[in-house]
Amino acid sequence: MRENHNLRQGNRILKVSVVFQDLKPGEHRVLRDKRQLWGQWVYIVALRLEDQSLLVVATQKAPQSAITDYAKRWSIETLFGIFKTRGFCLESTHLIDSDRLSKLLALLSLALCWAFLVGEWLHQLKPLTIKKHGRRAKSLFRYGFDYLRNIMLNLEQKMPQFLDVLQFLSCT
Prior knowledge:
This protein is of the alpha+beta class. The protein is built from five helices and six strands; from the N terminus they run ββαββββαααα. Strands 3, 4, 5 and 6 form a four-stranded antiparallel sheet that branches. It is elongated, with a radius of gyration of 22 Å.
């Protein structure tokens, strides 16, 4: 839910940002009473983030764990995004056999870890720029993924770099 969304507060209508204006960074609050929102009765929970913005979640159940649950959901959404449109294009395989799909997911999971580790390493060597909104220009996964892809597409010329990044797959 956005900060400029209107909520009924008693007989007044206030913006979410006004209702939760006194929250300090890291602090969260659950509104006591359910509110009707988009035709549903929900609890409203807000967390003040370090950048002073609000994370506001509407939930029908378990308002005390809504922020934690949302964080887990966001991690899963990010993972699926990497598997699908922002990285591996899993849907393009058109696989339907569960055994083959299971093996491919295992392989993609290893590739994701590899790309992330390479991205972290690259970020230590040459840090990613921070944009005006306070986030990196690209994710650590994307940084490593682009680097690995460039190596794979030019393997003959980039064999030394390949050998360098190959060590990230080693357990020793």
